[in-house]
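Milestone M4 deliverable, item 7.
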Amino acid sequence: MIRVGIVGATGYTALELIKILLRHPEVTLTSLTSRDPQRPHVSEVHPLFRDQLDLNFSPLDVARFCDEVDFAFCCLPHAASAEIVGQLIDNGLKVVDFSADYRLNDVSTFETWYNVTHPDPNRVGKTAYGIPELFRESITGADLVANPGCFPSSALIPLVPLLKSGLIKAAPIIVDSKTGISGAGRKANLKFHYPECNESISAYGIGTHRHMPEINQIIKRYCGSETDVVFTPHLTPMDRGILSTIYVSPADSGSIDDVMDCWNDFYKGQPFVRVTARPVMTKHVSNTNFCDVSASRCGDNIVITSALDNLIKGASGAAVQNFNVMSGFDETLGIL
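Output delivered:
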């Protein structure tokens, strides 16, 4: 059994992570941390786990934490995460990091988009990116994996095979994404207050969202293609889920059948990507680690739709999928 700890375990992604890890046959949860000095029992923060998990939260003491665990999931905010992750790895732990601290190719891009000084710059650009369907080889045996952003996962999974095969042009690419409110986290914020967001839909981060450089850089890392994706997220009044509608231009007269064949070939044997001719829906992937993809022709353009659960395939499910690959387990263990 692998002893697992979660750093920063009070949020929604940690809640989903604990759910998955409790049913994982090779995992024992041994440590949960938070900044709360009262050291609450896990059932006080996440009542779902009453009589399922007997652990108290504790403030992070790196030395003690590293004595208690073999593998860590770090759910801290951007910049705060890297400050801790470096110490955990230096103490011999393997880590999946949920923040954006290690996703990008270079420190300057990170510091420009996140407006902070990177605490662990030497690992930037050298860290495996955590979409196993694309980067399984580099994830296998890695000490640190950067868990992907939820929006980038919904865009990269359908786009990368088509760009790699030359079926679509690298520009223009427009990604229009709708997300549930849980993507904003658990911390109270007026704009996510129920009367503010219920019965409403709104765009945000127009031209400034931090996932744009992540999408562009990962496409270049995998495909070698220079892209300048236009990405706009929208907040929708649902708890969870992402639906991305992606507008691309075919490189030639390729048909939708060519697109479907490309996806089916690329993701053959990949348990968590489902190619479908039917319109995708967030309801069909809710509470699962699946990403559903589909495509239609619209005049001279191709319209791609993808759907995933932002808290599972967009966060905690992907993290456990990465954990399984890093540890040499079946990729689906604990998830399916």
